[in-house]
Design goal:
Elements: E1 10-15, E2 22-30, E3 33-38, E4 44-48, H1 53-67, E5 83-84
Antiparallel strand pairs: 1-2, 2-3, 2-5, 3-4
The structure holds zinc ion.
The site of zinc ion has 9 residues, from loops.
Length: 87
């Protein structure tokens, strides 16, 4: 019997290494790993899914939160597909 854990995707903001925009990422667990997907260009990054993942996402959010002071447009990153370029 396969028991499936119900885990909601974690949405968080991140700079995408592919499209180089700051975008909304969605992270979902896949077995022992998690897949983070850029909702703008669909670039996928594999990351370990462990108890530290929420802390890691929180740290990224903290980093982005600090950047908001310099780039208020980061606050507009809310929905899948949202993307902005900072420079
Ligand atoms: Zn991207």
């Amino acid at each position: 019997m396969i028991t499936k854990r119900e885990v909601k995707p974690i949405s968080h903001r991140q700079k995408c290494s592919k499209c180089e925009f700051y975008t909304v990422f969605q992270t979902v667990p896949v077995g022992e790993k998690a897949i983070s997907t850029c909702t703008h260009c669909q670039h996928m990054v594999e990351i370990p899914w462990d108890h530290e993942i929420k802390a890691a996402v929180k740290n990224k959010e903290k980093f982005l939160k600090n950047l908001e002071e310099l780039y208020p447009e980061l606050k507009d990153l809310k929905n899948p597909g949202d993307h902005i370029s900072l420079d």
